[in-house]
Amino acid sequence: MPELEEILYCSLLAADQPTHVVGRIVTQARSRNASAGITGILVFDGMRFCEHIEGPAEPLRALWARLQADPRHTDLRVLHQGSVAARRYQRFEMGLAEVEFEDDLAGIAQLQGGEALQRFLALRPRFDIGG
Predict the structure, then answer these.
(1) What are the tens digits of pLDDT across the range 111-123?
(2) Strand pairing of 95-98 and 39-44?
(3) pLDDT score, position 102
(4) Angle between the N-to-C axes of helices 57-69 and 21-36, in degrees from 0 to 180, rounded to the nearest 10
(5) pLDDT for residue 131
(6) pLDDT in tens, 85-94
(7) What is the rounded distance in angstroms from the CA atom of residue 9 to the CA atom of residue 81?
(8) How far apart are CA 129 and CA 124, in angstroms?
(9) How far apart are the C-alpha atoms of 50 and 45, rounded to whole Å?
């Protein structure tokens, strides 16, 4: 079994993008991520994305390169990156959660490392997960 890695990052929806583009992003990600063995959750508050992804190192690095080149979002910032002993997301290739409180994601975006990851994981039960 390949070693798993995880990345938690935040970004902002590009100013020229409508919010309904998020559904298209998730649809495309689900099939691509499933074939690459990547799981995770994308949280969106209407302006800010916060995504926690996990999978084998090489496919995860390739995904990160695509994310950095994607013009639909800006200000990408890695909050946490590292090895993970076991998957946190078993049920889906890419879950989408929408939050009503912008402060949740804004607060996470101000943190770094393990502190950011722990805050994100603590908020997971509050996320309205679709998918």
Answers:
(1) 899 999 999 888 8
(2) parallel
(3) 62
(4) 160
(5) 44
(6) 999 887 665 6
(7) 9
(8) 9
(9) 9
For the segment 11-48, what is each residue's pLDDT rounded down to a tens digit?
Answer: 999 999 998 898 888 888 888 888 899 998 888 888 89
Strand partners, 48: 12
Amino acid at site 45: D
The strand pairing partners of 97, in sequence order, are 43, 129
Residue 56's DSSP bridge partners are 4
Residue 115 Ramachandran class (φ > 0 left, ψ -120 to 50 alpha, else beta): alpha
Question: What tokens does 20 get?
Answer: 């309904």
Angle ∠(101,128,83) on CA atoms, nearest 5: 95
Residue indicated by tokens 């020229």 = 16
Tokens 């290739």 map to which residue? 93
**What are the φ and ψ backbone dihedral angles of 52, each rounded to 5 degrees?**
-120, 115
Note the pTM of the prediction, 2 decimals.
Answer: 0.86
4 close to 84: Cβ distance less than 8 angstroms: yes
**What single letter denotes the amino acid at residue 105?**
L
